[in-house]
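Its record is quoted verbatim for completeness.
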Amino acid sequence: MNQQELIAQAWALTEAIEQAAADNDWLGAAQLTNTRSPLLKALQGDQPDDSMITIRSIQTSIAMIMDMAALAEMTLMNRYRNSIERACAASRYQRAAQF
């Protein structure tokens, strides 16, 4: 696969990762990222300007998705914490109600 094909495939996977992230399919996004990583590692440093535009778009997308993932993680952690607190409160109620 030549460099232009690598970049085109990496971009297609980037778009698929963006869609998976938008759908909150983080497992799918991670799997696609694992597929894309070797393509990005195979890129050579000296690229024409049009390829660099696509590579920069991929970099921008990676940063955006990292922000989305961090927010999703925080949201899930907050929901988990709230669920645990509710479960503890229900347990305390049950213990108090037994007396």
Summary: The mean pLDDT is 96. The chain is about 85% helix and 0% strand. The two ends are 73 Å apart (CA to CA).
